[in-house]
Amino acid sequence: MLLTYQFKLNPTPEQVVILETWGELLRRHWNYALGERLDWLRRTRSQIDRCSLVSEPIGEIPDKPDYYTQASNLKQTKELFADYKNIYADCQQQNLMRLDKAWKRWLIPDKKGKRGGKPRFKKRGDISSFTFPRVNSLKAGAHLTGNILKLSKIGEIEVILHRPIPDGFEIKQATILNKADGWYVSFSLEDKTVPELLPIDEIKTATGIDVGLEKFLTTAEGQSIEVPQYYRKAQSTLARQQRKLARKVKGSKNYCKQANKVALTHLHVARQRKEFHYQVAHWLVNSYDLIVFENLNIRGLARTRLGKSILDVAWGAFLQIMEAVAVRRGKHTTGVDPRGTSINCSSCGERVEKTLSVRVHSCSCGLVIDRDWNSALNLLKRGSVGLPIPGCGGLDVSQPVKQQVSYVNLRCSRYTACS
Predict the structure, then answer these.
(1) Is the pLDDT of residue 335 over 70?
(2) Domain Probable transposase IS891/IS1136/IS1341, which positions (predicted)?
(3) Which helix (H) or strand (E) holds 174?
(4) For residues 1 and 3, what is the distance between their CA atoms, to the nearest angstrom?
(5) What residues have CB less than 8 Å from 72, skipping those under 6 apart?
(6) Which of 16, 109, 243, 410 to pair with 359, CA 20 to 30 A apart?
(7) Which of 209, 213, 323, 320 is nearest to 274 (CA)?
């Protein structure tokens, strides 16, 4: 299993200039390589007797560009532009690999028939990271010794190791990236001690989670977590910073300073949200052996009038974090179809039609519970079919038919167990 540990760097002013120069040169090379691919595509996408001579250039059609042909041209690039000789060769190759992956995601659909967006030309500052694919090996361009990271053609940079790299982990690659508050390095670590998944017959606790906007999630036991709304709370501060930015002369030093303040606000919100996701994920994985969630079309839901709130809670990012935490603990997660989970009664199975504004599920069988709780119970039913889990068939007859959802107050660290 590959893990990513990110640490803050403390480069000198001279090294900052070199890092920024590398990003700019790699951006130009990305744009040139992308232009080659798009030029070939425009010339070969229609039959030769039907090609428009007005919108398309005429002449000899170039060979199809791919990663290997463009990587072989790096030597010629360094002869024409001497600045590229100062960039470590593996970083330039990794830059072309990124473009090749983006190109294939756009043209070649995946197993589900979906494709990625069209690769775009990068503006100044868009490429703010580059990768050293080998670390601490014989021909590696990056070597980590203690808290000193030695990069080829850049020099030694101090790394602020706020947590130690575990023993037995092998550093596979290092990515240098620029954020609003400075430079960072992300180490890709290979962990060969990942525990095996818990056997199915040993699963003792299971739950279903229903995510929402009124409550971040509700479990099948009736526990709920409130939505923190980090972006909503920061909107007034962000609007004030953006108004100040609009009054600055674009491209001036004051404009750049104010733009960095706006970026810092966004970065703070993103870090708050990520920390919250890790806290909830660790709490769930510590409490249950099996977690059943709903496979939502989050991209489609984000296009509705509730798009801002949906993107603020970031269900997709949370589910990815929860699945990664579960794998490291040897726990199970599974996604099920969410259709009908909030309409069907978890006790008798009867359909109880209700609008989105109705937050209480009231069935003719006498069951009156929170709408999200009812949905979580249905999710648990669907995800635990065939599993030897007691008490997963909805509410027991001995339980009262009117209950209230209890809220969980999370106060835990990302790396410690939640109570």
Answers:
(1) yes
(2) 201-303
(3) strand 170-179
(4) 7
(5) none
(6) 410
(7) 320
Per-state percent for the chain, helix, strand, coil, to nearest 5: 40, 20, 40
* DSSP output for 106-144: HHS--TTS---PPP-PPPTTS--EEEES-BSSTT-SEEE
Beta-bridge mates of residue 130: 176
Q: What contacts 310, CB < 8 A, 6 or more positions away?
A: 213, 298, 301, 302, 304
In 204-301 the beta strands, taken as DSSP E runs, fall at: 206-211, 215-219, 223-226, 290-294
Residues 6+ apart with CB under 8 A from 125: 23, 27
Going by C-alpha positions, the residue among 241, 303, 298, 306 that lies closest to residue 269 is 241
**Residue whose C-alpha is closest to residue 314's, from 183, 198, 216, 169:** 216
SS3 206: strand
Q: What are 155-211's pLDDT values in tens digits?
A: 999 999 999 998 888 999 999 999 999 999 999 998 887 778 888 888 889 999 999
Q: How far apart are CA 48 and CA 35, in angstroms?
A: 21
Tokens of 16: 């900052």
pTM of the model: 0.85
In 364-417, alpha helices (H): 371-383
